[in-house]
Structure formats: structure tokens, C-alpha cells
Amino acid sequence: MVSSKTADEGALLKAILQESATEVLVFDADTLRIIQANPSAAKNLQYPLKALQKLTPLDFLAPEDGPAFNTLIALLRNGKKRRTALNVHCRRRDGTRYPVEARLLYSSDHDNPVFICIANDVSQREAARQALSESDLRAIVAHIPGMAFQITRKHDSPPVLRYASEQSAQLLDIEAAALCAEPERFFKLVVEEDKADYLARLAEAGGGHMSFNWEGRIWMKTWEDVKWVSIRVGQRRVAGNLIWDGIMLNVTHSKQAEAEIRHSRAQLSALASHVEKVKEQERVHLAREVHDDLGGNLTAIKIVLSWLKDNLPPDAHRLIQRTDYLDKVVDHTFEAAHRIASNLRPAALDLGIVPAIKWQLQRFARNTDIAYRFNATDEPIPLDPDAAIAVFRIVQEALTNVAKHARATQIRLRLVRNPDSLLVTLTDNGRGIQPVRSDEGKHAFGILGMTERAAALGGEFSVRPGKRQGTQVSLRVPLSAASPDAAE
Length: 488
Description:
Layout: H1 4-19, E1 23-28, E2 34-37, H2 39-45, H3 49-52, H4 66-77, E3 83-91, E4 97-107, E5 114-121, H5 123-142, E6 146-154, E7 160-164, H6 167-172, H7 176-181, H8 185-189, H9 192-205, E8 214-220, E9 225-238, E10 241-250, H10 252-311, H11 317-344, H12 353-368, E11 371-376, H13 385-406, E12 410-417, E13 421-428, H14 441-456, E14 460-465, E15 471-478
Parallel strand pairs: 11-12
Antiparallel strand pairs: 1-2, 1-5, 3-4, 4-5, 6-7, 6-10, 8-9, 9-10, 12-13, 13-15, 14-15
Helix pairs in contact: 10-11, 10-14, 12-13, 13-14
């Protein structure tokens, strides 16, 4: 017989559950069928109590929450847990969903074990949190140096510019709402020279305007100025729908800086080319002076010495020895003058680039004891004097680097004439490219000088490891601009 105290406690508990805003469900441990539910649960789920008692929790849980619910139920049945918590979404009878924080308890104190679910509707809290997140996001977007936007496309429907930040007015002189209503207004701003590239990227992307990465110029009529903009977009898929999250930035200043850097580099390259040209002209002048003036004077001295020797008395042995010594000094000076003139401007260049490089290789082999193989085309190579001397100096510097740094025993040099270019390749069997130390700045400047010479000719210069060992130096010089009359 139930005591009056126990009955009073039961009545009090039932009254509390009836008035509580917390949802309470009791369901059978084996079948999961709902046995009891308080009014709050029935109200939130939009089911009458009798209809609710024909269901299980899986009937109104969101499908994605079912597996987690089943796993927790199994743990409770096996006694591994006595109670547990979970965050799920419930579906009302009309199909709407709301988030809940729930606690599950397992009770086996009576004949039919049951699960007790106590749940709180947290939709208002989630809504407040979401509103706060959106507010924070809008504050962040409002301070980025560009226009943020989002494009969506549902299934086969056309893309829609769903959102554009307020910076649209500052960047494009178009209000955000107007841009969202008519995204093609952006395309109308693109300058004529860049429209073809924009349309090609648009066709490749398969989306709407601004749904792809692009960089180009737009004409701002209000300011009568051209502005560079950069569009960067990321694509994602949500519930079968495509979403493009993008940002458009004003990159005019960086583009202007790049143009200034390119202009400065072009000026420096032109200056370097001019300096090299002046140096070569001065070398030619000095070589001519050494050959003509110094050579002429030495010839006159040798003639006078020969006359003196012939007219000295036979018994003037010391004078004859002095005259012979001076004659040898003159011969050595002749050789030195010839060497200096050849270094300043090799006479072999007058015969063409192939004989000049072959002469250079012979001198290199004599001075270094490094063997060489030389392969060159038999066809004439049309190079104007400036290009010929530049190619000669680059090969000269490359050979100097081999002698100083490569520790090679053999080199191979090839000259190949292509329809529109001359290819020079120098390969050694040395130790390969080594990291440049701070005390090896001259070597680094040597490579830089060769690169600048090649660039001044409109050519390309590269240094890379050889296929097997050593280093390979390559020079490609265009022939299209060379004089057609110049040939070997």
C-alpha cells in the first residue's frame, strides 16, 4: 500500500513536470517507444500526447543525429554509462527543426527498464549566437581593404550575386544593392583591351560574373581614371549548391610599383648595355693604338738596333751583347703588345664568331691544361659586331669560371644555329655548382654580368647542373635582329 507521503511526492513531481518548460520523455529501453511525455515536449514537437506515445525518438530526431543517438543508447544499455549528454536537432510535426541540449539516463529500478530524456530548447540562444557571429563578420568585412562578395547557384539555376559588401561603392562607384541586382555592370567597367581576356575566363569558369580569379583594368568615369583590380575567389559546395566566396581588391598602387620597377630594370639594363658597348669601343680603340702606334714604334726601334749591330766594330763585344739584349726586349715587347691587343679585341672576331671562339679555346687549353671538344655549325652565323663581341665575352667569362672554380679536366663547347637563334652550350666535368659564399662575390657578379649581356641581346642565359656531373652553361641569342649581311 502506497503511503500518503509517497503519493504526495509523486503528485508534486507530476505537477512540476507538467509546468516545466524543460522537455521530458520516457521511452521503453527495448522498443524505444515513448511511454510518457510532459506538455512541454508535446508542445515543442507539435504532437498530441497520445500521438507522441506511438513514436520513438528516432522519428523526430534529425537524420544526421540518429547514429550518435543509437551509439549512446547502446552504451547505456551495456552499463558502460549511467547517464550521458548530447546536442541534437529535433524535427517538429510541420518539418521545422530546433536545437536541443539533452541528457539521457538509464533506469532499471523497476520491471521494465526505461530511458529518460531531459531536453532544453536552445534555439533562442543559438539565434543570439548566430546574430552575434554575423555582426562580428560584418564588422570584419567592413574593415577589409576591398569588396567582399558571395555568388550562389542552386542546381541548374543561373548564378546569383547574393551579397556584396558596402565597399562596392568606394571601389566600383556602384552601390552594393545595385551591383547585386545587375552584376554585369562590373563588366561594363572593364577597359576594352582587357575585355577579351575577361570574357575568355568567364567562359572557362562556367559561373557568373566575378566567379573566377582575374586581374585587369577598369575605367572609372567619375574619376576619369583607370584602376587595377584583382578578383580572388574560392569555390565550395553546400547541400548540392555551388557557392563562390570572393574578394575584389584595388591593386593599382602595386601595379604602378611593378611598372616602375620594370621601367627601372629596363633603364639599368639599357645603361649596362651602353656601358658594355662603350667599353668594347674603347677596347677596340686601345687595341688599335697598341697595334699601330706601339707596334710602329717598336718596329722603328728594331730597325735602328739592327743598323747599330751591323755598324758596330767587330771587337766591341759588350756593345754587341747589349744590342742583342735590346733586340730580344723589343721582341718580347712585340709579343706583349700583340697579347694585350688580342685581349682587348681579338683579331679572330673579324673572321666570325666560330674562329674567334676556337682561338679562345686553344688559348684556354694552353693556359689551363684542360682538354676541350668543340662542335660548331658549318653554316654562316649572322651576328652584328656588338652581338658577336657579347657572345665572345660571355664564353670568355664562362671559361674563366671553369678554370677558377670547376676543378674540371675536360670541357665541351657546342655552337648550334637554329632557324631564329644561336645556341651556345658549355659543359664541364667538374665538381658542379657550389653554393656562393660571401667571399665569392666576384663569381656571382660574373654570372650576373653574363646574364645582363644576354638580356641586352634579347637572349637567355642559364647555369644548371650537368646531366651526369659538372655544370652546364647555356646561352641563346636571337638571330632575327642580326644583320643579314654579316656572316662568317
